[in-house]
Automatic annotation (TrEMBL):
SUPFAM superfamilies in the cross-refs: Periplasmic binding protein-like II
Source organism, top-level taxon: Bacteria
InterPro entries from the UniProt entry: BUG (IPR005064), Bug_dom1 (IPR042100)
Family (UniProt): Belongs to the UPF0065 (bug) family.
UniProt protein name: Tripartite tricarboxylate transporter family receptor
Keywords noted in UniProt: Receptor, Signal
Record's signal peptide: 1-24
Keyword Nucleotide-binding on entry: no
Length: 323
């Protein structure tokens, strides 16, 4: 009896050993979930939904977008890290949640071990904006006012620890301004507060601001990134003002929890590469969202994250405002 049971268990184990790779090879058999760490209406959300739609065509399964905003992206990113590593959950991961914020506060994930990086969409395009009826026509005029009126200006961005907040506070220190930071869950919230007169300045993305600029409600003073925006080519970049010699950079990437099946990792990475290197997608994202697309593979980005995490452990500011 025991011998027969042993043979049965051995046969079952052999069957499972053969069946598991076969089942994995059929991935995906079910819909996928894409977690977005910022609210609906943000640039990240809009671009993620567009990518999800295009990804569906590549993998032959639906991709459901689920928003998990809060704490500068930590809430959504931790949900990705804790998801079952079966290849059916991926999400957007903002650079500071992996490289900067873990050195400022405890986070419920290991930024170097808990993620399978799949692709980088590209750098975010950020800018500094005021209301269209504000008295400041240039960034220098805003700085001059801030220096002459310490404590009177307030600025809004995504939560603490994001590159938006860090670069604005660095500008305040470097340029001799004392301005108050007001955190928001997303760019749309901060832009609404700006238009409503609750704050004076925002550092925000193109998707949240361009429609308001075109509607005559906002004025862009400067691109805080390395170059001018193609949608607003007459507005200078931060370095061009001559006031500072650095620029804000942060990255839009996609990742899954660590340990997903190799077949899922490979198919997702290839599908995302196909989407993000398509010239039509690159042009479309720039026109619709003001989001530059400069694809980078997940393995290369993992090395960037590891390098910059170590730099931030020493308190280096180079990752927020790159020279």
């Amino acid at each position: 009896m025991m011998k027969r049971l042993a043979h049965t268990l051995a046969a079952l184990a052999a069957t499972l050993a053969v069946a598991s790779p076969a089942a994995a090879a059929q991935w995906p058999e079910n819909p996928l979930q894409m977690i977005v760490q910022f609210p609906p209406g943000s640039t990240t959300d809009a671009v993620a939904r567009d990518i999800a739609m295009r990804l569906e065509k590549q993998i032959g399964q639906s991709v459901v977008v689920v928003n998990k905003p809060g704490a500068g992206g930590i809430v959504g990113v931790s949900n990705i890290a804790r998801a079952k590593p079966d290849g059916y959950t991926l999400g957007t991961v903002n650079y500071p949640t992996l490289t900067i914020i873990p050195h400022q506060q405890a986070v419920p994930y290991d930024p170097l071990k808990d993620f399978s990086h799949l692709a980088v969409v590209g750098p975010y395009d950020y800018g500094i904006f005021v209301r269209a009826d504000a008295p400041w026509k240039t960034f220098k005029e805003l700085v001059d006012y801030g220096k002459a009126n310490p404590g009177k200006l307030s600025f809004g961005t995504l939560g603490a620890g994001t590159t938006n907040e860090l670069v604005m506070n660095r500008l305040g220190r470097d340029l001799g301004m004392q301005w108050q930071f007001i955190p928001y869950k997303g760019d749309n919230e901060s832009v609404t507060a700006l238009i409503g007169g609750q704050i004076d300045v925002v550092n925000a993305s193109a998707n949240a601001t361009l429609p308001q600029v075109r509607a005559g409600k906002l004025r862009m003073l400067v691109s805080s990134g390395p170059g001018r925006w193609s949608a607003l080519p007459d507005v200078p970049a931060l370095r061009e003002t001559g006031l500072v010699d650095y620029a804000q950079e942060s990255y839009f990437s996609l990742a899954a929890p660590a340990g997903i099946p190799a077949v899922a990792q490979e198919k997702l990475a290839q599908a995302l590469k196909t989407v993000l290197t398509d010239p039509e997608v690159i042009e479309s994202f720039q026109q619709k969202y003001g989001q530059a697309v400069r694809y980078e593979d997940g393995a290369s980005y993992a090395k960037t994250v590891a390098r910059d995490y170590q730099r931030w452990s020493a308190g280096s500011p180079a990752n927020v405002a790159k020279h």
